[in-house]
Amino acid sequence: MKLFEPGLIGTMELKNRIVMPPMCTRLCGLWGEVTDNLIEWYVRRARGGAALVVVEVAHIATAVEPLRYTTRMLRADDDSYFPGLFQLAEAVHDAGAKIGLQLQVGTGIRAASGPWAPLGREYIDENAQVAASVVPSPVMGRRVRELTIDEIGKMVELVGHAARRVKQVGFDAIEINAHAGYLLAEFMSPYFNKRVDQYGGSLDGRLRFLFEIIDSVRENVGPGFPLIVKYAIEEGIEGGRDIKEGKIIAECLQRRGINAISVSIGTVGAKLGAIAPMYFPEGHMLPLAEALKEVVQIPVILSGRVGNPVLAERVLKEGKADFIGLGRPLIADPDWVKKVAEGRVKQIRLCIACNDCSKVTILDKGPLRCTVNATAGREREYGMIMPAKRVKKVVVIGAGPAGMEATRVAALRGHQVTLYERTNELGGGQLRLASTPPHKEVLKYIVDYYSEIFKQLNNVKVKLGEDVTAQEILDEKSDTVIIATGAEPLIPNIPGIDHTRVAPAFDVLAAKAKVGEIVAVIGGGSVGCETANFLAKQGKKVTIIEMLDAVATDMENRVWAALSDELSKSKVKMITGAKLIAVSNGVALIIDKEGHEISLNSETIILACGRKTANALAKELAGKVKELYTIGDAKQPRTIRNAISDGYTLAYHL
What we know:
With 654 residues, this protein is α/β, with parallel strands linked by helices. The protein has 21 helices and 28 strands. The strands form seven sheets. Strands 3-4-6-9-10-11-12-13 form an eight-stranded parallel beta barrel, surrounded by seven helices.
């Protein structure tokens, strides 16, 4: 396979064509230092077979710009940080991969938090973030100030110092971060750069800062050291860079001595982005890579939903890119490379592009987590499944995400496991329904993965189509019973809710309810919005009613942006700050935020008002079995990530 042919980036020879691009983890220390958790995170991906692991962005100019994009952001601007970086490079080398580090001179308008020191000043407004020019973020709108020429010179000097140290402690390559609306990207952008000095105006002026950075790095690492630049070939915002200019920049970078280009797309405020949700097609940045291949001879690294091995191989064979960047796919399954090489493609835990990893690290400000991989970011704590000291007979009730993961891990520990599911297929009721709305079919990857894994485990019995009773479970005389029976719709207790025109969203997605042409969806969370999209695609006129002042507050922003765009095109109406108070003769009566009563004449009223636990079986078995556990939505309705994590952590300790 082309995927496993060696390749060159400058003088650096790579054993295959798989590159892990930099991604935010929040696994470093409070001040940006390397931690044991961070080392184990990267080592695990190196062990899985990636040829080059590029470590997440490191800030190198805190003295000039103390603001940061995210808390616990890696730093490389002081000698005190380099012993940790030395250990990181050494560990990744020992695991069999080359290692690079992405350097960032400044965050610019992407800065979302306060200065590094002192901590606790995140919301102090006088700390204006530096920028190419006084063009505020179209998203955050924070006050900005134009970076001075002296500060530019200082950043150029500091990046050189950092680059020299990075090479000295054992890194094999440096990637310069010039994408996603960060400071260098702003200088390059015709939208954000309105300067009238030598760093603005024409393309040459807008590239001057980047070229000075490149020259400073090159001077400090020498002529043979591999340098990569990551930038948006197309910004996707009115007045921003188009593909034509993106190609010209690529030619300029090649002439400047850059050894490879990592393809990106979008900027702050753009609908397009490199971290593509499931609403984007696989290989969504492929046309950009193809455009660059027309004008440059240096290697092009393509990321962006290319985790399908068939697609990745085709891209390389057809010469549309030289290396495949696997970011989220290696979060989901660090052994992706190894499994493809060994012909175990069906055993890959595929990324579902849900962007929960981004939601946790960026929006929720937590350490990296993954929906389908419960060990991501917790490799030191949960990374190795050990054989159990005593083999147990384990019964798992419910083959949703929590039940399937508990079954897998318990079996890998050596227990004898029987998994019961009342429907006729793996996935349980909710996961199958969740895969019904447009673009959500990727959730079937989860079922496909467990189905294949269970075939490899001879200590697992899967019994489908069996609505097992409490007495039948007791008759099995098991050591451990795990209840993973999921959740059921929450039906509000209001007058007329039992009208024939009213149906839960679950029934609609399961095709158990007849839906008219004019629809009111009660509840604007992810379930309500996705159900609305499902029906709008069928040509139905849909209105969403939400109690809060905004819809989709439980969705990652890029996922919501894509879904919102589809809802807008389908002319789905939204009423926020409104509450359903009754159903009268099939009419939904709601009160809006001003207290006005509104009657919605809908042919069908769909309830997406939340879920409640379906744990009656757990209550029946309480005190009657040796070990009884409740996990997933049966414990508390949450997300697929929470369910799989519940299943893993419980079985890990059985």
